[in-house]
Amino acid sequence: KSLGEVFVWALGAFGLGACMVFHSLGNTHLKRYIGARPAGAWSAFVASFGNVLFWAASAWQGVRFKPDASPTTMVLWLCVGGASTWAVAVNTFVPGRIGFALTFTLGIIGKLSCGLLVDALGFTVRRRPVTWTRGLGVALVFVAVVVFKVSKELLHAREYAQLDEPDHPRTYGKTDPCSPAAASP
Predict the structure, then answer these.
(1) pLDDT for 49-63, tens place per residue?
(2) What's this model's pTM, rounded to 2 decimal places?
(3) Which end of the chain is more exposed for a tag (fewer CB within 10 A), N or C?
(4) How far apart are CA 86 and CA 42, in angstroms?
């Protein structure tokens, strides 16, 4: 493969990760203002609309669907649907509890680990063994998550605690519209 082709595909993969952050940010924002169920419904609508556009573009390009009702294909589709549902749920609820950076860094560790397993088992064109360098890469990302979390908890605990105070200058006098205090007169 040419360097240009590798760059284009790498840029696409990076864009996927960036889009996941925006997807989660949108879900978290919507959940806060319209509730969890409507936010999930909007997310499903946007995803479905995107799928319709993708199918229309594929049909326009002349791509045809090849039906395959084998049991293994059906199980794979169930796994894909379950994974997509899980991703929407995690992207909607987890960042508000542990933060966006930690959520997506842990997600990357999960992707790396599962990617190593899929490659090692040969689900792709050919098996790619788990080498010490690939294992080290996953371990280094894990160490980075631990350092990130520990530094946040230990070094910045006081600053984060102050940000939670309602009259702290960085809150700009705003209150959480979903909090019980905001609902009371």
Answers:
(1) 877 887 788 788 787
(2) 0.54
(3) C
(4) 16
Rounded to an integer, what is the distance from CA 162 to the centroid of its chain?
29
Q: How far apart are CA 32 and CA 35, in angstroms?
A: 6
The answer to the question of residue 18 being in a domain is no
Residue whose entry in the numeric block shows the structure tokens 């040969």: 122
**DSSP label at residue 65:** -
- Full residue range of the structural domain in which residue 164 is found: 99-170
Residue 81 forms part of a structural domain: no
**CA angle centred on 46, ends 43 and 50, rounded to 5°:** 140
Token representation of residue 115: 């990617």
Cα gap 61→138, rounded to integer Å: 38
Tally of domains within the chain = 1
Alpha-carbon span 159 to 104, nearest angstrom? 23
